[in-house]
Design a protein that fits this description.
single chain; 280 residues; Rossmann fold; four-stranded antiparallel beta sheet; 11 helices; globular; binds adenosine-5'-triphosphate; ABC transporter ATP-binding protein; nucleotide-binding; membrane; ABC_transpr_CbiO/EcfA_su
Length: 280
């Protein structure tokens, strides 16, 4: 059973960069165990800022961050506790990778936790396998392709065995095959119990992959079932998001009487195929 207490939660969170305007005001955002959450919103809307607040890289100017219901303290002990539960993979892998080889980079977090050498080695082996980059273990990170660097950066977070893996636009810059491979990897991590939060501009991907959406617009953050939020035209407009193709197709099918008014629409191409097979 999933715990009713969120693993991490921002309560009434506000934030502004130095001398800048407010980026986030009175934001509430709860991440519960087992979910796949897509964070969407316009450029400059505050997605990265929100993810950094959630993972402790930035500190709320107002409001608070809770971990398992208790307020996070930003001292060494509090941040270590947070980071063993919540890991952020930043958008640009070059901001995250710095060690000479992939394996060294991936081992950095677990080593910093002071884990025994055997445990570090095991975690690195498993993280490299989960990201399908075992063959790259000894490669210098600067010689990797962009997609490989992305996977190496994610492996570094996975090696920390977080309960919540947060990723900032993980599919940006990946080719379609790379995107599919990443989604398969995320399926594997989720099956093993990891909660995943992903910022993305890709509404089709969000509808297909997530079960919950969090949409940032000038009116604030709205959270809810992904299919409901991404069919809300006013919200899509406010957040400058396009309507997912599957939502348009669902409407068309309803208008043609091929789908009952109250039936859920397709979310993926496979859903659509199955639906069309059924209606003959
Ligand atoms: N380090 C910083 N110093 C000052 N302002 C910043 C900094 N980082 C972001 N901002 C500003 O904060 C606002 C929110 O930026 P943020 O990166 O959180 O948005 P985003 O939704 O992730 O955008 P994008 O979709 O373009 O990645 C923007 O106006 C941005 O210019």
């Amino acid at each position: 059973m999933t715990s009713p207490t969120p693993v991490v939660e921002l309560v009434g969170a506000g934030f502004a960069y130095e001398d800048g305007p407010a980026v986030l005001t009175d934001v509430g955002f709860a991440v519960r165990e087992g979910r796949a959450v897509a964070l969407l919103g316009r450029n400059g809307g505050g997605k990265t800022t929100l993810l950094r607040l959630l993972s402790g890289g930035l500190r709320c100017a107002s409001g608070k961050l809770l971990l398992d219901g208790a307020e996070v303290t930003y001292d060494r002990k509090g941040l270590t506790r947070l980071r063993t539960s919540v890991q952020l993979v930043v958008q640009d892998p070059d901001d995250q990778l710095f060690a000479a080889s992939v394996a060294q980079d991936v081992s950095f977090g677990p080593m910093n936790l002071g884990l025994p050498e055997d445990e570090v080695r095991l975690r690195v082996t498993q993280a490299l396998a989960a990201l399908d980059i075992t063959a790259l273990a000894d490669r210098p990170t600067h010689l990797l392709s962009y997609g490989q660097r992305k996977r190496a950066a994610i492996a570094g977070a996975v090696a920390m065995r977080p309960r919540i893996l947060i990723m900032d636009e993980p599919t940006a810059g990946l080719d379609p095959h790379g995107q599919e491979r990443l989604l398969e990897t995320l399926d594997g991590l989720r099956a093993a119990g990891t909660t995943v939060v992903m910022a993305t501009h890709d509404v089709d991907l969000a509808l297909r992959w997530a079960d919950e959406a969090a949409v940032l617009s000038p009116a604030g953050l709205r959270t809810g079932p992904v299919a409901e939020l991404l069919a809300d035209e006013a919200l899509l407009d406010a957040a400058r998001l396009r309507r997912p193709w599957a939502v348009s197709v669902g409407r068309l099918l309803r208008a043609q009487g091929l789908l009952p008014e109250d039936a859920p629409g397709p979310r993926t191409a496979e859903d659509l195929d199955a639906l069309l097979d059924r209606v003959g």
